[in-house]
Structure formats: structure tokens, C-alpha cells
Task: structure prediction
Amino acid sequence: MEEFENNIGYSFNNKELLKTALTHTSYANEHKCESNEKLEYLGDSILEFVISDVLFQNYDNLKEGEMTKVRASVVCEDSLYNVALKRDFSDFLYLGKSEVASHGNKRPAILADSVEAVIAAIYLDGGIECAKNFILSNLSNTVKTASMHVGMKDYKTVLQEKLQINGEVNIKYTIIREEGPDHDKKFTAQVECDGKLLAQGDGKSKKLAEMEAARKALDELK
Result:
């Protein structure tokens, strides 16, 4: 457990609390012990509160609806899965035999849930400031990126409307390149219209890369 504590940057006073946070229901059912489900529930609420507070305190440029969108893109399975990969959660999970056999320690849902459970465990063990420190040390860059691209999800729709103004056309997005380790991927997407290349764009996810490609295509159309 000491190695895991070093990975996450927090040392627990109550080691059993940490073990529970890393205990999947499959293991709990086999060994008749408590799983991390209740901690996961609490951790989700703490995470949402902390991200909401950070957005309210530090992002005056965002409107209420935009803050909601940014929070949703941060408090999601993908971002928490990346935290788990970065901190090697998969090496420390307690899983039942069936989950071990099916490589459950690699499943995004299980890993994301365990991050929420650990957040709750840190909160119960050391208080809200400790939980906040863990959250921000792992997700502040995600918040920053999401806030910068909060309007990007409209670009594909706007591009489609502009291209189809005179009738139906075939718009195609393709991921043409993927670089970097699992916890820090960079994707490159291209957008075509009726087989003609319009633009390419980069992003930390496939979705963001497609949005950036659409944004650049709109700039070219202007």
C-alpha cells in the first residue's frame, strides 16, 4: 500500500479505508467484506463539488451553462480513467477471480470508479482539503483544457449546416494519427466533404481532435 500512497501523493492514517476504496464488488462478494461502492457514491459528489467550486472561483469568463458543460467533461469516466492510468491504479485493485481472469483491472469503468472511491477515502481520512489537493493535482489541466474548448462541440454542427446549405453532402471524420502514452494521448483527425479534404485538427481525445478539425474547416470556409 505504501507504493500506491506514493503514487497518489497521500499517506492514509486508516489503511483499511484505502483497502476498501480499492475493493471491487467481485472481491467483496468472494471474501465477505465491504466493497468500494458506497465510497464511489460519496467520491462522485465530492469530485463534482470541488470542480464546481474551482470553476466558480477561477473561471469568471464562463457562463453558468458553460461551467456545467466543462464540469460534465471533467467529471466523467474518460478523465477518471486517465487518472487511474497515470497513478497505476490497476496494480493495486482487489478483484474477484472472474474479474482477474477477464482483466478487469484494465476496464475503464472499474478504474474510474476506483478513483472516485479513493477521493472519498482521502476525504474521510484527511478532510476536504486533502481530497481537493488530490483532485486538482490530477485534473486541473483537464479543467483548463475543457474550459478552452467549451464551445467546440458546436463546430461540427455548424460545419454540417454550412456544407449542406445547398443539399445533402457526405461529411466524414477520420482519426489519422494517435501518439503518446495511454495517460497522455494526442489524436489527429481530418474532415472531408464528398471526398475532399477540408482540414485537420489535434486534440487530447478523438472527440476534441474532430472538433478542432471542424473549427479549422470553418475558418477555411470563411
Remarks:
- The CA atoms of residues 201 and 213 lie 4 Å apart.
